[in-house]
What does this fold into?
Amino acid sequence: MSSRTPDVKSARLSREEIDRNFADLHPPLKRPEALIEADRCYFCFDAPCTTACPTGIDIPAFIQKIRSDNIRGSAHTILEENIMGGMCARVCPTEVLCEEACVRNTHEDKPVEIGLLQRYSTDPILEAGTQLFERAPSTGKRVAVVGGGPAGLSCAHRLSMLGHEVVVFSRDEKPGGLNEYGIAAYKTVDDFAQAEVEYILGIGGIELQNGVAVGDDVTMDSLRDEFDAVFVGVGLGAVNALGLDHESMSGVENAIEYIADLRQSSDRTELPVGQRIVVVGGGMTAIDIAVQSKRLGAQRVDIVYRRGPEQMGASEFEQQLAQTNGITIHHWASPKQLIGDGHVTGIEFERTALDESGKLITTGETVTFFADVVFKAIGQRLDDDSVRLNIATERGRIVVDSEQRTSLENVWAGGDCALGGDDLTVSAVQHGKVAAISIDRHLQESTAWPT
Ligand SMILES: Cc1cc2nc3c(=O)[nH]c(=O)nc-3n(C[C@H](O)[C@H](O)[C@H](O)COP(=O)(O)OP(=O)(O)OC[C@H]3O[C@@H](n4cnc5c(N)ncnc54)[C@H](O)[C@@H]3O)c2cc1C
Ligand code: SF4
It folds into this structure.
């Protein structure tokens, strides 16, 4: 197998083909379609869809406003709970959140298309830059937000609404976090991530410092001295390794780094693409790298996951998306050895199973795949070495209470870096909002006159 010549090249497809392949995954609804869809809602009194939404958007209320053509009011209902309602309308796995809970499932087997309706309401408001929220009078308090992803920006926006001054420090050159660098390109077309950031900043009172890494360029201690409170939303900056020999061999790549390159590329025909690709992992990142590789022109893409379909982090919809893109998902196999001389040419897996106690074991049976590129998509972890937070962590994440307070006084955290989340954009937004409300209460209490 090592004698096979690796086949990795750019321009496997024409620019037109690639543009077509990366068009909007769920095109927006037109007005007649939106009105028909809105009419399907029963406006349930105890709306289970709202309970299932991590940000608690009043879903029947915003759908009702669509029916009366009150788009501004509808968007207000969405954005007051979730300032990234536009992005979440595109990327939320609604099939396991609001739409799974929709009572229409039981009556007709098809939920109301809540995600598409949410997009219908929020898109015109963002496109027109219509600010729906105002800043409260200045409190004179200053809050540092570390991280410009969904958690940080949501926190910053709510703090600004409450009258505080906010400075967002973000290591990346562009704000948005994984909205800008991670989400699959066909879910967020036309530079939507930056348009949304601009909308969020439009409220005022938020200063953005890009390319500033806390831990390297400024310390947490200096932020705690300089600001009245600090919110940490640094995401998960370190990538898990396979733990195999020769992992630094050419052709063995981190999926999220390739996706970031893809998202930042102005000409996708220039991206190098393997003819045969093997993806190791079972989450959203695994599906995204597989589907995007296929859409860039890879001939064969296999995903290999060490457990069964039910344990995959990727939702059923995502798994189907992979399959309809011609990708094969193999279960119950874990990587054993990388094959290649300088550049990877294959990867050997060992079959896995569960023993009587439910523990994952290898069976000794092996299976080998040819590969020009092997993508690692087995999760990320907190990059504590570089951030140097000196904060209590558990299982590699920052320990927080129900208000997102950490073990450090005057420091809150949220999003992927915090313990207890589910690694979704919408949950990061909720963490940021909850933290901002808690910070505000804390700042008010600390300035209240003693009675
Ligand atoms: C490939 C991929 C696809 C995904 N697809 C989906 C999807 O379809 N739907 C969905 O709901 N979720 C998806 N997710 C998950 C979602 O993107 C995350 O849950 C969400 O972005 C978390 O937000 P965050 O603000 O916690 O962190 P991030 O978005 O990771 O943002 C972290 C921010 O912190 C900054 N930062 C890091 N270290 C430092 C430092 N030392 N100093 C200063 N700033 C720092 C970064 O520059 C960045 O701005 C996906 C994730 C990945 C990896
Ligand atoms: S559960 Fe479905 S039908 Fe009921 S309010 Fe929510 S979207 Fe409408």
